Amino acid sequence: MTLNLVVLPGDGIGPEVTKAAEDVLSAVCKGAGLELKMSHHLIGGIAIDETGNPLPEETLAACADAQGVLLGAVGGPKWDGGSVRPEQGLLRIREALGLFTNIRPVRVFEGLEHLSPIKNAAGLDIVIVRELTGGIYFGERQEGDEVASDLCTYSAEEVRRVVAPAFEIAKARNGKLTSVDKANVLASSRLWRRTAEAVAKDYPEVTLSHALVDAMAMHLVTHPNDFDVLVTENMFGDILSDEAAAVSGSIGLAASASLGAPGTPGLYEPIHGSAPDIAGQGVANPSGAILSAAMFLRFGAAREDLASQIEAAVESALKAGVLTRDLGGDANTEEITSAILERL
Ligand SMILES: NC(=O)C1=CN([C@@H]2O[C@H](COP(=O)(O)OP(=O)(O)OC[C@H]3O[C@@H](n4cnc5c(N)ncnc54)[C@H](O)[C@@H]3O)[C@@H](O)[C@H]2O)C=CC1
Ligand SMILES: CC(C)CC(=O)C(=O)O
Ligand SMILES: [Mg+2]
Fold it and tell me: What is the rounded CA–CA span in Å between residue 7 and residue 297?
């Protein structure tokens, strides 16, 4: 069997962490007798520099033909203030591939409990399911010198199609789902809540509760272990997942899978950005990218066995104390990657 993966390294630390993830994927596939074909394409700031377009047609065509897409990160100060932004490339690819469900697991790894900024995060294991192609990031935008606006719109169908997989994930775990919204203020959130309640009728084995996003931001740093699966709209999920990742010890640890309709290619990326403050130094934590590659094997190649193999190797390297700077250690990207490769 051949796996066809498109790699979009992007900007800043993107190429550093995707390189690590490629090395790990290659090793695992080789060990399993799987042929892995990888092709590299442009996205983000580097794509603007080379083509003027943050998502060149050629990149999109390659992605549409692949089994999965591994992305590093886009953006950086070089492109801030420009009329075309690297982040537009990321939003466009999510929209073009129809990637409406973004799965962001967050765990406190064994041995890293002390790195959490909160005292009761040990054993944390939650999944944030974030809607990825609707809401305020995709609404009509108006930008004037004195007034600007961003419209947040959701249809019931957009809510249903992301809430349903969240129920599935909750059903396969502990039967507990928390839907996060701002229904005390926003009409789009009231539609979200009503729709989640309607979908709940198909999942009698799952207990659905609701939380307002401001309170949820607090719960994540006071008693995160009371939660298991969260489902929420695009912007709330963006913000809460960075927060949850910080609670787990570092944003460098957090992976994600963005999925659309069955049979279409998913996109796998760490949740962090291009980290311009450390780019080019070879010190970025590649764990989030490597764990995203594991999610590609799980969701894009139906190889749960290989995904688990990578996850176990990452956990073991971290437990052994091979830690990058963001985790309080002095290992560089290459050293942690080697430690993971040794454990495969
Ligand atoms: N998916 C994407 O491509 C994303 C892109 N961005 C873009 O990235 C650029 C920088 O954004 P920031 O707000 O600084 O967020 P960021 O996530 O890039 O960095 C925030 C902080 O976390 C650290 N960090 C992030 N990833 C790390 C890793 N793997 N290892 C060690 N430390 C890590 C950075 O050094 C920085 O101190 C912006 O242009 C932004 O628009 C931001 C978020 C997501
Ligand atoms: C740069 C944004 C478009 C994306 C983002 O922050 C994210 O997906 O986490
Ligand atoms: Mg984000």
Answer: 14
Tokens of 28: 């695992």
Whose Cα sits closest to atom 13 in ligand 1? 273
242 has catalytic annotation: yes
Tell me which residue has its CA closest to atom 2 in ligand 2: 87
DSSP state of 7: E
Mutate to test the pocket of ligand 2, among 69, 87, 133, 292 (most ligand atoms within 8 A of CB): 87
- C-alpha pair distances (Å), 328 with each of 29, 116, 125, 318: 31, 11, 21, 12
Q: Which residue ranges form the domains of the chain, and what is each CATH number?
A: 1-102+251-343 (3.40.718.10), 117-248 (3.40.718.10)
* Helical spans, DSSP H, in the chain: 14-32, 45-51, 57-65, 86-96, 156-172, 187-200, 213-222, 234-247, 287-295, 304-319, 333-343
Find out whether 330 is annotated in a ligand binding site. Answer: no
Q: Taking the model in full, what pTM does it have?
A: 0.98
- Span 99-142, pLDDT tens digits: 999 999 999 999 999 999 999 999 999 999 999 999 999 999 99
Of these residues, 214, 226, 305, 330, which one is catalytic?
214
| 1 — pLDDT class (breaks 50, 70, 90) | confident
The fraction of the chain above a pLDDT of 90, given in percent, is 99
Question: Does the active-site annotation cover 238?
Answer: yes
Residue 279 annotated in ligand binding? yes
Strand pairing category for 266-268 and 257-259: antiparallel
* Whole-number pLDDT of residue 127: 98
Helix (H, G, I), strand (E, B) or coil at 68: strand
Please, are residues 91 and 137 in contact by the beta-carbon 8 Å criterion?
yes
Query: What mean pLDDT comes out for the span 188-214?
Result: 98
Determine whether 154 is an active site residue. no
Check: complex ipTM more than 0.90: yes
